[in-house]
Design a protein that fits this description.
- The protein has 420 residues and is mainly α.
- The longest helix has 35 residues.
- It is built from 18 helices and no strands.
- The protein has one domain: Amino acid/polyamine transporter I (Up-down Bundle).
């Protein structure tokens, strides 16, 4: 009887942990799916075309770094109940809060142009005029957010983002050579400036300002509490692995096909990359799977980046900023989101070649890293309760890893631009 009671209590405990994880699941997965946005996919594709598998190891090395960064946003959101901008304002003052939000606005603008350009590019693959595809995409983005609570928006974002898994099918169909993958992964041309520029772009494609603002604000908006911390960290870890595996899949597909036959191809747009892959993946399959992946990546990233800016501005200015309010209850919050979406659609429609800035946008994110990670670590040291504050050996690990990541990203960017 005693053994049976113990077994039942264990089952109940396991069931409780599973239910809690399902309830907490969302912010980490959504932000990581958004992390593999259109700009990141183009960057991974360029990496594979120009350097084969020589940037593949970097994708795997970035998994723990990405988790380390986003875990701090989870910690801050759960134990302070504040969004990122609000916490900077309370801890360091309004001026520094505006500095952080200014960087967020720049990164969000660049992200939206690449996401919506990517979605428009997929429409053009099927003969749909970009005005039509942008109108449909913009309408869908507005409907998903303006008519739903946080939980509904989260579910919609995950559903759309899961289309990114199509890139695993693209990588499989490319038939990569395992021997080449291993050999080239450890053949790293550190002295090449073009290589370092793409290193910076890949780092910037992984750690972006709007990811930090979104996840911390989403955790606070979802009202996660300290007892949810373990499950939220697991959500973030799973997302970090997922997003980097998607990046690796795109790189592998590009390296196995274009990198092996057209290493000097200049692929700056969704259309160029899709057209180049088609002979190796098949016209129907390649275009469909690639298109689904791009649409999923672009749509979920557009939601996350726009909401991040709406949350960040609300946290600094004080206007109501929550998806739990109806549009007429939080007019400025929803207005900022709508302006981001509509403005992005209009700009992409009138200036169709903006997607060529994809790699440059990721490099810009790398240049912003010292400010972004500096604020994040400073908050983790000063704003958290004593028992969960960043301190001791883990503080030094975080500082060293962040410093090395920032140094590599900034040096790669400046080197690639010929400034060092």
């Amino acid at each position: 009887m005693a053994l049976s009671t113990v077994a039942l209590s264990r089952k109940a405990a396991v069931r409780e942990r599973v239910v809690r994880f399902i309830a907490v699941l969302g912010p980490g997965l959504v932000v990581m799916l958004a992390d593999t946005d259109v700009g990141s996919i183009i960057t991974a594709g360029q990496s594979g075309v120009q350097w084969g598998y020589r940037l593949l190891l970097l994708q795997l090395v970035l998994i723990p770094i990405l988790y380390m960064v986003q875990e701090l946003t989870v910690r801050l959101g759960i134990f302070t109940g504040r969004g990122h901008g609000e916490l900077i304002k309370e801890t360091f003052g309004r001026f520094w809060a505006w500095v952080s939000v200014a960087g967020l606005a720049v990164a969000t603008g660049g992200a939206l142009l690449t996401e919506l350009s990517g979605v428009a590019g997929v429409g053009e693959l099927y003969g749909v005029h970009r005005s039509v595809s942008l109108a449909l995409a913009g309408g869908a983005l507005l409907i998903m957010v303006l008519t739903g609570s946080y939980r509904r928006v989260e579910r919609a974002a995950i559903a759309v983002g899961l289309f990114e898994f199509a890139f695993f099918g693209v990588a499989w169909a490319a038939h990569p050579n395992p021997g080449d993958m291993v050999r080239q992964s450890i053949d790293i041309p550190f002295a090449n400036k073009d290589y370092l520029y793409l290193v910076a772009a890949n780092i910037g494609a992984v750690i972006m300002p709007w990811m930090i603002f979104y996840q911390q604000s989403a955790v606070a908006d979802k009202k996660l509490r300290p007892e949810h911390f373990a499950a939220a960290r697991l959500d973030t870890a799973g997302g970090a692995v997922t997003t980097q595996l998607v990046m690796a899949a795109v790189l592998v597909a590009a390296a196995a096909t274009l990198g092996a036959h057209h290493a000097h191809a200049d692929l700056n747009t969704v259309g160029e990359l899709s057209t180049a892959l088609t002979p190796y993946l098949g016209a129907g399959f390649g275009r469909l799977i690639f298109g689904l992946g791009i649409v999923g990546a672009g749509m979920v990233a557009a939601i996350v980046a726009s909401l991040a800016l709406a949350w960040g501005l609300g946290e600094v200015t004080g206007y109501k900023h929550s998806l739990e309010y109806h549009p007429f209850e939080a007019r400025w919050f929803y207005a900022i989101y709508a302006i981001c979406v509509i403005g992005g659609c209009v700009l992409v429609d009138v200036a169709p070649n903006l997607v060529s800035l994809n790699v440059g946008v990721q490099v810009m994110n790398a240049l912003l890293l010292p400010v972004v990670l500096g604020f994040l670590i400073a908050l983790a040291v000063r704003a958290l309760p004593e028992e969960v504050r960043l301190k001791g050996w883990y503080l030094w690990v975080v500082v060293i890893v962040a410093s090395l990541t920032c140094a590599l990203g900034v040096f790669g960017a400046l080197s690639g631009m010929g400034l060092v």
